[in-house]
Design brief:
five-stranded parallel beta sheet; ATP-, maltotriose-and DNA-dependent transcriptional regulator MalT; about 1050 residues; flat; P-loop_NTPase; four-stranded mixed beta sheet
Length: about 1050
Amino acid sequence: MDPIISTKLICPEPHNIFIRERLFAFLEESGAKLIVINAGAGFGKTSLVSSFLAWRRIPFLWYQLDQEDSDIHLFMKYLEAGLEKISGNHPRLKTGSPGELKDYVALIINSLSSLSDGLYIVLEDYHQVEHAPLINSLLEKMVIYLPPQVKIILTTRNIPPLPLASFRAKGWLKEIEGEKLKFTLEETRGFFKDLNLSEEDILKIWKSTEGWAAGLKLARYAMEIERKYGLSHPEKTFISYADEYIREEVINKMSPEMVRFFEQTSILDTVEVNLAAELTGYGETEKLLDEAVVKNLFVTRLDENEYRYLQMFKDYLERRLLSVSGEDELKKLHQTAGHLYWERKQKIKALNHLLQAEDYRSLSLVMQDIIPQMIKQGEYEKAKSWLDKLPDNILKSSPYLTLYRAMAEVFGGFGYNLPEEYLHIALKGFEDNQDYYGIAQTLMTKANYNLQRGYGHNALEDGFKSLEYLEKMADNLDTDSKSELLGEIYSIISQSYLLLEKWNESTLWLQKSIEVFKNNLSRNRISFMAREYQFFIYHPRQNLRQALSAFRFASKMWENAGNSHESLMAKINMAIIYRILGEYDVARDLVAACLAKAEQSGDNRAIAFALFTQGQIQRDTGQIDKAIEAFHDAIFLGGTLGLNQLEAAAHHCLSSLYRKAGNITAALEHGHEALRLAEVMGINYFIGQANMNLAMIYWAAGKLAEAREIFSKAREIFIAWNAQYELARTDFYIAAVMLDLGEDNQVINSFLEEGLKVVKANDYRFFFYREKENLVKILKYCAGKGIEKEYIDNILKEWGEDKSYLYKFYALGAFKVFINDKPIPDNIWKNNKVFGLLRYLLINKGKKIERDIILDTFWPEMDMKTASANLSSCLYTLRKALEPELKKAAHSNLIKYNKGHLWLEPGENVYCDVWEFVEEGEKLIQNWEGNDDTNRIKKLEAILSLYKGDLFEEYPYDDWVIPFRERIRELWCQGQEILADWAVKHNQIEKGIKIYKELILKEPCRERYYEELLQLLIESGQKKEALQYYQKYEKTLREEFGVSPEEKIQRLIKEIL
């Protein structure tokens, strides 16, 4: 008898134990007696089991099988030897006849039952002995009588010939197949963790290997070799390793005929039985493919007649085919496949193969059939992508393909560089062929193009021309074709009138369009009409609820028609309307759902618009950092897709945010980019808007002359465009800038009168509310000059701005003083004592302070007479600074002194941010009692926004300030805690994180803030940052106080280490 090879009973030691929690849990928790791991070469069967055993640390018997082990005597001999390593109590049997096999089963089961510990029996590569009936019988009996502490694991490339159905029904069997063995993306990240690869690289490796274990290991090995020896092409090394592995493990074990079949069918994404037979001429296609599935040769059965190859196997076969057969045969195969798919009406697959065959004649014929459907379904990006694959001369030789290319460009919003050229070529081709329907379609598209550029008159002219040509051939068109184009032309004419602000005409043609769609087309086409409501959304006379209903209806109709893109776009427009209506929770949820669906379907255009809308919602709800991120993402995606209009709008929003944040450099950068894109598109409305935005930035930067000049440019554009609303806005801005420049009041008044005339006539009052921060001053000027005084007074009253403060003091952060909205420069205060006295009186609002207390506070080292003289001098200087027109002997209305007491009179014309912050803040916070409705939260946010920094932060060493400063800081902290709790409760985790970071900056040793921050960071997956904050806190405590963080915080960190 053959001697024992001891190494066959040794478990291969894993190079690195990689814990695959998902599969380890399956192996450990399985109550089954038999675990079958069935997959092809390289799926990681051995690695999984060996790593699991090393991790689990439980006794095991490992038996590496090969073909020689088919002999039952040898098989039993190895089992005996393996059991002997574990326990001296083991069976012995000299022969292997069926009769004695029963006795052997009894002996081995009794031997296993005597084991006190659990045991795994691993039979590695069971497919090597599966054809041995005695071994199968032995294993079957062992499974039946196996004691509960013992489990058998089979690794195999084939389904073993055992009564698996019976085992499965009795709960004795658990199975792991190839799909389950594939590494998930998360497992792939863990596998490459120590190599510090980028997320992009990891995703690329995972997709190319499809989680195939051998592929991942080969990729890792190639990278390690590259790093060790400085090789520059790890991808090539990886491919060569993978090819060698597939060749040795799979190809060399196939017949030449079988290899040839797999080579030829590797050009197919999925292999359909009948099509593969016609492509290759191989008769027994299904039998061959089924055999490959059973043997786990990188082939998966998708359904009854369709199969798929593992991507790395497919890639290898394609490389082999090109090397063996050459490029010409490869093109012929693609051409044959293309025509076979076309016959089967599988149009996209036909396009793919004809393109790779470079059969452009057939390709253009297929495109003329399929591209119009893509256009109708709103798949503009896909249509553009396909048409761009054609050589220019082939594309332009077909008027219809050229028109479709223009349509994709115009309707898809991919930019405005090429439509004019395509439209010109298409129109000439149709005219040469006297194709009136083609001419009408081209003119309709041209009208849409002009409409998007803001040329209302040109759009109207093209729309009516299109209508004329359609009517010339009305009798030669089927009803649906005529009605579809007629409805769209009516729609374009309606939108053109709308752009020209001719409301009655626009409404008339809109109704015509709707009637055409209602009467002559299926209901899903009515949804086209919802697009018009986009033009009404921002018009104050429009009923936004009506627009909302239209988009809701449109979304359902598009969905029923199978156009997921247009359905998503309609829902995104619904989110826009909810945002305008101030229903932010609804808007936020809706756009989040749209974004998730768009990402799932890979609809990048919808993703871009959803990101932009999400940014607007976040901006409006105070999530500025998130809004900035969303706008940047929209710009990146919009730029990638050529969505100039969206990209310009996102730059516009960013510039506005940066302007309000005081980052003028960033604001100008994005503002100029918005203007550049608007000029590229040639849309006058956008150019005017971009200029107005730039002017606002220069105004904020104090460059008033430049601001006025740019506002004037925008005004000229809006006059030419007859945009009354924008013209009114610009008039107010110009007037406000002129007021700051101190220019002629008569000219200012004329701008204001013109602007107010338009605002009142069209009820554009909402404009003032949007631009409140910029217009308060000019509206007060209007009221003061009696310009529409009653109308303006009502607005100012609603804002709480009807009071005009003579004095404004800002003490939170940098100390500033304003008289009549003009700042008092620092050099007006003759010395620090004067300035200090003012600060002292301010924080003691209205409190009458004894003269002796003031003398002792400011001049403690002086005698009473000298100190009193200094106080008198300071009071004189202070009054002259604040009340320059006050006569020498007159009494001050602001700084009061009477009967040995001094105070600052808090009259109606005096404002101080500290007073408002403390009084309103304490009233709100001390009576909070868990009442966290949205309105109260907004009010709290407004109060806390007054806190620009510590009280008199430029004067940190005044002892008398410290108690006030600490009280105010603590009040701010309490308010921020409430906001943080509210944010977490409403699942706004990032906002909660941001607040706790701000709190830690103020209070770097307050343990609760660190505990809450670490908890949020860990829960949101930001473990690295959590560790960094812990280390920072630990260092602060150690250096400042010589102590360590509390046990609770230490436990949080231990959980992530």
